[in-house]
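Appendix B. Raw example, untouched.
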Amino acid sequence: MAAEIIRGPRDLPAGLKGAAVAVGAFDGVHRGHQAVIADAARAARALNAPLGVVSFDPHPRRFFQPDAAPFGLMTPDQIAQALGEQGVERLYLLAFDAEMAGMSDRDFAERVLAQGLGVRHAAVGFDFTFGKGRTGSPEALRAYGAELGFTVSVTDRIDDPDGLKLSSSAVREALKAGDMARAAAILGRPFAIAGEVVHGDKRGRTIGVPTANVPLGGYMRPAFGVYATRTRLADGRVFDGVANLGVRPMWRTPEPMLEVWLFGFDGDLYGQVVETQLIAWLRPEMTFDGLEALKVQIDADAQAARTALAAISASR
């Protein structure tokens, strides 16, 4: 069950205040984030308080660098779903605007956490910074909390035994390299793209390969190429498949697109929101001499995808 998304912190009713919260950007809800949430959960149990997460929309980086390339790992709905799986009841999604960006660290602690949300505990990571100019530190938050009436815990850096760096930037590096196994190891689940299925040029239908086409929107661009995939439909059904992510060099689409062929599916998905896990990167994008050569390669890609998905399923 997904966490309830609460757009705050202004004018919240008393019943939505008083949570023990983890505070941060939480794009990816990776294993490092999950450790901070676990500390907040321990405080929530001790205080008999709801468990919440305080995060921002848009991501602060998007506010300060509006022209930067897309870098998102999740949509707010995906974040809420992943948080719900961690036992989080509430996602306080704060608008990161000029007012928020201009707040001092003390203003954020007092006006947002203490007064606006009425938090009883705040859990943060060891490298957490906040306030204008990122002047606030975990130690500063602990001092503000003691003054304003909430406790603070600081989660130490987690060192993965396999040497993985548990960070959102490390996930992005893995995705750019097409290393889906490393990305999944950091996230604790496969990376997934969710979006509404839109109409494409329907070329796939002419060669017997209908695809569900999903714009990438604000997601970062993983390595372009062909992937083995698993897609969850709006009705909960899950289909294995093979997908092309990129600009299709034969036709050079103006914006990158995820085009998924769902094995065994026959139906209309237009207008529906689907979520596709990128399980394994199979090959880069290629150009072909014609549709027949493309069809031969798609058949080979489909077989490679089935093999990769079967191997991953068998290893679990």
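End of appendix B.
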